[in-house]
Automatic annotation (TrEMBL):
GO terms for molecular function: alanine-tRNA ligase activity; aminoacyl-tRNA deacylase activity; ATP binding; metal ion binding; tRNA binding. InterPro entries: Ala-tRNA-lgiase_IIc, Ala-tRNA-ligase_IIc_anticod-bd, Ala-tRNA-synth_IIc_core, Ala-tRNA-synth_IIc_N, Ala-tRNA_ligase, Ala_tRNA_ligase_euk/bac, DHHA1_dom, Thr/Ala-tRNA-synth_IIc_edit. Belongs to the class-II aminoacyl-tRNA synthetase family. Alax-L subfamily. Residues 519-546 form a coiled coil. It is an enzyme of class 6 (ligase). Keywords: Aminoacyl-tRNA synthetase, ATP-binding, Coiled coil, Ligase, Metal-binding, Nucleotide-binding, Protein biosynthesis, RNA-binding, tRNA-binding, Zinc. It comes from Colocasia esculenta (Wild taro). GO terms for biological process: alanyl-tRNA aminoacylation. This is Alanine--tRNA ligase. Its EC number is 6.1.1.7.
Amino acid sequence: LQVPNNYETDLIFPIIEKTSKLALVSYAEADDVTKTSLKIIGDHMRAVVFLISDGVYPSNIGRGYVVRRLIRRVVRTGRLLGIKGDGNGNPEAPFLPILAEAVIELSTHIDPEVKASKARILEELRREELQFVQTLERGEKLLDQLLDNALSVTHDKGDADKPCLSGKDAFLLYDTFGFPVEITIEVAEERGVSVDMVEFNIEMENQRRQSQAAHNVVKLSVGSETELTRTLHDTQFLGYVTLSASAVVKGMLVDGNPVTQVSEGNDVEILLDRTPFYAESGGQIGDNGFLYGLQSEEGKLKTIVEIKDVKKSLGSIFVHKGTVREGRIEVGAEVDAAVDANLRQRAKVHHTATHLLQSALKRVIGQETSQAGSLVAFDRLRFDFNFHRPLSEHEIVEVEMLINRWIGDATNLQTKVMALSAAKEAGAIAMFGEKYGEQVRVVEVPGVSMELCGGTHVMNTCEIHGFKIISEQGIASGIRRIEAVAGEAFIEYMTAQDYHMRNLCSLLKLKSEDVTQRVESMLEELRMSRNEVSALRAEVATLKASNIASKAFYVGKSNISVVVENMGEMDADELKSAAEYLVDSLEDPAAVVLGSQPGEGKVSLVAAFSPGLVNLGIHAGKFVGGIAKICGGGGGGRPNFAQAGGRKPENLADALEKARIELEQAISEKTV
């Protein structure tokens, strides 16, 4: 059957038909604009489903951002078509999973893996749509106002030029409200307004620079034409084979400015011709250690510089950040550079453990998961990865057992330098978006992992000793983070845990295996005790309330009962119980306003109005909010019941007096 375009083939048209049904439109009878919207949804949904099936999850980086942009365009286009809900009477439900089912059904004979991943695809689309709808609702109102302003300014000036939304406004939407700039551009174009992307990009660059400055990244930008930057060459890194080496000081910086000499007690950034120090990169932090200088004539120790960090700048120039502890250091001097061997070993252990962690995650939760960031430090490792849900306790234990088994296998690591194409062909994992040269370094744990990596690693997995995950949490949509310890840090962590457990066992007079059950029992006892206390306090509050019921006074021709009292130090729950008791015990119509000082610098207020009073048009929520302002607070609630708080207990008496006066006035006016 001949069709006029690709969209009406049996690969995409069933998705368009499903979309038309949700939007309550007929594709055949639709105008060109509606048909284009339906085609966009059909095309994008097909791409998104296959990408998620292949393990590309929505995120803010690399391929993940492509998926996120496609999803967002489908959501917004669907909303413009009038799609509300899943078509099954649930207006708040997401519609992407419904369309995805149509795509999955079409894929059965093309790629069976898509159907096998159905649950994962539908859940990812559901979560992403719901999250984006919240973003849309926050940003759309502000964007509409900004576009109205842009249009009105152009109209008032009588300009013939196209109205323009400023880059600062577009950046405000992006940075503060999380509103995607591509959606801003699309909506603006629909309204006949352009977006100043030059100014937007300037704002983005300013933010990037501020963020970079906040991380104290070393920059050798002190005049690219100075003698220092013209004569600098890449630093020769010796740290793969040695932890100490002689080197020549080629340049120094103090506060970003080039100097020739630095004396004792001053911070300095030192550039060497070669170094055993590893510079921060690939997630691994820079080495610590010392630079030693010898006095040439007498051979006595002249200079000691403590190195606390090493970073890269201008390609592969290593910047050694430290403090002169003894003597002075000069440009041109020869020094002995010595890396702290213990800290380097800790970093090596954590870096190799990070590779094992990635392999273990792929085996336990699926090959589609991938690294999204990492930190290799002396005291721990941190690994960010793409995944749509928290790991279960069973999965965490399985990951730990796999890694510790690989550690126990005592496997020698293999490190090779090879062509990038050969490394990828061999199956080496590369970070998406990372730039690599023609020649790359490949670190392999045979049978376990193979990655492109320039970091330092152990010679044998047995050097890691042990591995333990200490936390697993979500840090962004579709991104999870694991923190773990290995090597000496693992031993220190487990020793500390054992110490705390032994102390707990001693206090509870129990064996370690019985602690969990006993703590659960104690928590249940505590919960029940708290409930009993709460019930008793509510009874006391009710008793106090019954004693003040006689203090009710009557207002208006209908003799409406009113109670306004200070209840001392009652907390908010007790105050609520007292107010509910009073308004139920007084004859309808009745009004109760109570206040208390539950703690230092705290005020609680509650207003309870009977149905008869509410029918007069007196609203508890609005009433108590105004009273709370006197105490430096605010609040509100339903017409018949509302609570509020404040920070100025010294004004409570005045607030209650105002409540009394305003209630009398309001009731008198309503009962005339």
